């Protein structure tokens, strides 16, 4: 069997590190890691946006995102996020990491977050939908920013990387029925019971649709 | 799953059990002979009627004979279970009524000598791998019933398990005679145990049959149970049988009778504790099969056991911890398949435990995988049982209720964790969900392997 | 550079997956000395679980397993690919993935443990299509059972649900209780169609088995069961090692040495990751290195004695590449909430199309209703539709509870033109060429897929489906087979009915590469049964000798 992925723009082909290291088994792990680090440093440009690669960052954070959050528009990002999720409370720790990831993936996002925040404070928006609609109306480019904020909070992904898995909001809103893969919601055979019913949604999209394609992995 | 190899017996000097090879030191028959000729005289009933047989079966269950006298996957009561001791393995014997391989030639008196007095048919002493000091408290009527059931209802098995061959000095054997004289034994119960009032019935179940004290009462330097510390807890070859006195701070004084009953019946009492290792086996084979009135009696007895405080534990073991409220912020991408570098405690927990116990430690919604907080195994100051469970896992069936957790020891098919990985894990789990980081070292974990 | 160590065993095996490790285990238990050479490293589960959680593209089940450079495996199913290069009209449909590491590809299978049907072994005789095997179902039946016991397979009582492959014993474990979603699917199909849904036999614990726990429904069989409730080859590795078999990881075999008559294999040569070369001698040799790597090794071993490659006097090594190339659709049901993703991934199958008189013109197939958690897909879909806030959350719940995914395994056919060759320019770090595969889906399979699409459209109609997402083209199933095809005639096949190469008396192949037809059931149980039969043959010959 196979899975699926969404066709999405990926910054580059997955980086192949196969030719990076002969990984002599007799070498100490430390030495091996330092070789990989050196090689990685030289290839760091190609690394952005790639997934599925071996990176020698075992116990350290992968980048400097978290160390200079004061330079990031975190509070504006949080205010936007609360409006766009219709939630009064969001986890600041996740917000810091998402904001860092989004800006790291596209430096222009910092300015766009600022501009969207301006729009938010100047208007009087009663819901996420009202605000998202206004944002897209003002500038089509804002749709991508809103998508990234939604993708961040709900999927836990920013800049093509996992920021949170278990703690992504998509699992919070479905936890009465399913758990994230690799976690169990019950003991053996819990799945034979009837899960909760779900009413047909009545809400409307706030923004224009985007292309969505399922393709093999 | 831990079998009896890993259980409490290693602290006892071990020896042949029942009809082992006839090499024991034959002692003078008058050292400790029980009064002869009892047990066969129950008014108005022959020894082998159905009621007697039913009683015998129940006594065998309550006394948990099968736990030791059946090997893994073997025929019931045909022996063959390896019991680890400091001198080597003792192999339990065939106690089916087969005349050549089992106890088919035992008279009732000989049977009684073995069960209540630790003397086997050739007159030599059994080592107290066999808890005859507890069984000594059985009533004559129950011994008779037990004998009848073994003779008539247990299927004879014509095979002998491998003989125990221990290489300790012969003097050890004779020393058992001395031990036997000094060891404190239960006094035989009188009358019909079925007519005892609730508390007396509970006491009888706890002491003469279930032999709770064998594990839960600490032992003195002579390895005799310290009766002034009844059920106050003690170490048992890897496991720690906890203080189950009525002390609120050190025992289970904060449990209700209902909690104790559900624990004995199912092996778990939510927000208190769950049974693994030897206690898991006791629940599976014995306590889960007791009648409800007997469970009530046993619980009532345990509830009133005088409180004994512990020198290490000053707050209920199940009163610690809470769900972790931290997002699982991730900073890594998949590492190469040959990267087996050791992870930190939180990562080891996430990779091996969180799948079932939840990243926040609260277990599955249906409590199949228990919560790690409000859990005695984690809240205790003694990491012994957590280490043993991580190494050996849990596999306990009580009626329809099954509990399973894979072990992470050297023969795990799921994940083999190193000593230092287990140390990091135990320190993280107890530090996060329990009474604090116990600072377990890799060396300490190593000492628990193969216990 | 050559090692001074003298490595030798009665039986030398290449590959530590389900085939190699189970042979090693059987032989070691019989007191026969065994060395297993595994190209990849030792691995462990805990790192894979973390890798999965750290993986952004969760459906990429190769994603948690980044390869080592000396034993590359395909990084994903994209074309072009950085290791497995496919070409031809259906190049994308042969983008197989597999794993080169201790325990093999069963680390990320879904545990589906089908026996083949008796007819699958006699496709030519019964339907005039493809080829017959050089053995019958009955020859394999005892080994199917042995494999089921080894893996721990659960399945339905044959008296209640006959899956078409006659059994002498019931399954080692009771059938898995199916999820609410699967129950409803089963009900719908039985009430509204002439078809039936059956319990899929699975190498998954429905009770504690072999020191592993009961399945708890983590819904992540692929790519990694977090608790070991599903069989994988690493358990047989552990068992074989406990029985005395010697496993050498990071040993990339690159040469098969024969005697001067070219009738018997005398030694295998392998590179370590530093390209140090080592020679291992033995009495018997088994190549159990996955369909693609097995053919590659035989071709790489070409020399003056065998210019077209070892065991290749027929010219069929690398040919007849097959798969269960299929069809997949995902859609949103208009019915009630099924909430897929509770329990294991693959538990139920429509099996009506596994055999029938029409098989003389189009291939058979089976249909899976996949029971996987659709929350991530639903979230992406809802965001792409333009929802935010409360409306987004409402959509996610609705879509996640109403997504249905169906896919099929369609029967391939042995066609010599579908061929694996060695890439002329691309080599790995040890200098071993990458594999190339030319693939054109046989017309027989194309017709089968057309039939499947029609059935899927009917099912979408039954469920009032919307938002259909058809996987473009055809859908590779990672069940490659046929590259060292079995047959009675040495002129057009590579191995005989006992998986012994026609050319070399003491060289066996244990892999799906020997399949003469590919049927419809997942291939692993048949690979394991053939491997256990090879072990049986070897035991008889070695103990007799």
Order of helices and strands of chain C: EHEHEHHEEHEHEEEEHEEEHHEEEHEEH
Range of helix content of chain A: 40-55%
As a whole number of angstroms, the C-alpha radius of gyration of chain A is: 20 Å
Low-confidence stretches of chain A: 1-67
Q: In one word, what is the shape of chain C?
A: globular
Report the total helices of chain A: 8
CATH topology of the largest domain in chain C: FAD/NAD(P)-binding domain
* CATH class group of the largest domain in chain C: Alpha Beta
What share of the residues of chain C does DSSP label as strand, in percent? 15-25%
Mean pLDDT over the full residue set of chain C: 96
Query: What is the strand tally of chain A?
Result: 4
What's the multimeric state? heterotrimer
**Secondary-structure content class of chain C:** alpha/beta
Protein name (chain B): Cytochrome c
GO cellular component, one term (chain B): plasma membrane
Cofactor (chain B): heme c
Organism (chain B): Acetobacter oeni
Give a written overview of the molecule.
In chain A, α3 (74-85) packs across α4 (92-105) and α3 (74-85) crosses α5 (108-122). Chain A has helices at residues 29-42, 44-47, 74-85, 92-105, 108-122, 128-138, 142-155, 169-172; strands spanning 5-6, 157-158, 161-162, 214-215. With 217 residues, chain A is mainly alpha-helical. Chain A folds into 2 domains: 11-60, no CATH class; 65-170, no CATH class. Chain B is 34% helix and 6% strand. In chain B, the strands form 4 sheets. A two-stranded antiparallel sheet of chain B has the order 1-2. In chain B, strands 3-4 form a two-stranded antiparallel sheet. Chain B folds into 3 domains: 4-191, no CATH class; 214-317, no CATH class; 320-448, Cytochrome c-like domain (Cytochrome Bc1 Complex, Chain D, domain 2, Orthogonal Bundle), CATH 1.10.760.10. The radius of gyration of chain B is 23 Å and the shape is globular. In chain B, α7 (198-209) packs across α11 (292-303) and α16 packs across α17 (442-448). Chain B is built from 17 helices and 8 strands. With 545 residues, chain C is α/β, with parallel strands linked by helices. In chain C, β8 and β9 form a beta hairpin. The mean pLDDT of chain C is 96. At the A-B interface, α4 and β3 of A face α13 of B.
